[in-house]
């Protein structure tokens, strides 16, 4: 309400309270309310006041019209202290019927300002384009309720369009909300509003889109074979792009509040468009990411738990809906709000997906029309499961969903899954997926590791590594391949070896260990590296009986460590633990850097300092520890 008072002070040139008038009209608000009737910024009922986005849109429209010297249309207005106030928004809101067709024309004609003029279509043009609203051209009744039906159509110039039919009395606020947003948004995966038409008591919004079908219809049609994995993946990616634009990159931040397959429209190439902004909400750039509503729209199963429990809306509510959309698109299940059944009994849709994923029976839940066995499907399921977590704070942002930050994604998945299944199974899932499609880690049976190290004999022990959390052994596989095996206790500093794994599957350098696989036995985790290790640098430096390290070899080791640190820093990786104990040498004294730390407080200069200490220790043979 204060904004409304300020606007009238600016327009009238009067103060909010003017004692020069008779006592009944001292207050500017009272005078304005009497002059303009109801439904404005000054309405006593907050629900009847327009949104800031609507106010801004109307003010911009008024300004644009006033700047046109040759503009002849004079909108209706009321006198306030002798000044005329434009009435675009008020005249439209106060008359909710199309009896005020003129008001609707003014609203649609001005809402986009000078740069986005909506075309007014004759009703007869709409009838012809849709073949008299034939059932053949009907796409669906839109899911959220604010639209009676959608039709595909073709204008006389051959342009394909989508036409949404609204009842102007029932959902006027919703389609008005949609129009006020879409005239300001521009994205390849959002519908482009072309114009409007008014016929009787109905309003038609015309979109520039040759629609083929909704995603919902193609998923439900089990005879449809168009949705292979590549197309489904493309659709999911397109929706992610649209939501990322709405949440972060548009002219203002928007919570869509209606992400579901019925609102994903596809053209003949199955390129998606996100539609239905009737229940969308705007957030100012500096506004908190959470707002509270008295009522919300949406389809059960896609609404985030915090929304229907507390009516609290945030961008994370869209993330939840997006997660359900992912799982529905992959599984082909169209009733995510219903209980499903398996050998464990009835469970929610999310629990059903979780159980099958953890039991390694993902193939049982993937839509049989997806005839491909791809690890990319598993990764997208992972993102979907991250998005449907109960706590909004645990869900990723749309940017994280879109970029697919593998390290964060898998670590978070591990944390969630540990609450649902045993730790061993969670670790196996972590190692199986961390490398993505291009780097699959081999799972070794513990018996294989036991044989390779001769039952972890003292003769095969290299050293206790720098962090003192694990021990390194040299070993040889049955095929003769030399390996180094690091034995970790899974309960101590597990984040360190998970961080190392996440890095090594991405990095490639001759002086870095190449991770071959893993093994899990009891509480212990074993990382197997493809490297015939001979000894660690610290053992050779500080063993006074060792005479193998002449100056040439020491210089070669120092230079190699310098090269690998340059490589890491170029890839924004800080090692954090450069010491002789974590430099492994083969029989030719070629070094491999290992044991990565993870500390956000470190900088590249910390590596430089420790490298300097390493040089001094290597030259002098003196152990500073």
Automatic annotation (TrEMBL):
<keyword id="KW-1003">Cell membrane</keyword>
<feature type="domain" description="Protein kinase">
    <location>
        <begin position="136"/>
        <end position="413"/>
    </location>
</feature>
<keyword id="KW-0067">ATP-binding</keyword>
<keyword id="KW-0547">Nucleotide-binding</keyword>
<dbReference type="Pfam" id="PF00069">
    <property type="entry name" value="Pkinase"/>
</dbReference>
<dbReference type="GO" id="GO:0004672">
    <property type="term" value="F:protein kinase activity"/>
</dbReference>
<dbReference type="GO" id="GO:0005886">
    <property type="term" value="C:plasma membrane"/>
</dbReference>
<keyword id="KW-1133">Transmembrane helix</keyword>
<comment type="similarity">
    <text>In the C-terminal section; belongs to the protein kinase superfamily. Ser/Thr protein kinase family.</text>
</comment>
<feature type="domain" description="Protein kinase">
    <location>
        <begin position="435"/>
        <end position="625"/>
    </location>
</feature>
<dbReference type="GO" id="GO:0005524">
    <property type="term" value="F:ATP binding"/>
</dbReference>
<comment type="similarity">
    <text>In the N-terminal section; belongs to the leguminous lectin family.</text>
</comment>
<keyword id="KW-0812">Transmembrane</keyword>
<keyword id="KW-0675">Receptor</keyword>
<dbReference type="InterPro" id="IPR011009">
    <property type="entry name" value="Kinase-like_dom_sf"/>
</dbReference>
<protein>
    <recommendedName>
        <fullName>Protein kinase domain-containing protein</fullName>
    </recommendedName>
</protein>
<dbReference type="InterPro" id="IPR000719">
    <property type="entry name" value="Prot_kinase_dom"/>
</dbReference>
<keyword id="KW-0732">Signal</keyword>
<dbReference type="GO" id="GO:0002229">
    <property type="term" value="P:defense response to oomycetes"/>
</dbReference>
<keyword id="KW-0325">Glycoprotein</keyword>
<keyword id="KW-0472">Membrane</keyword>
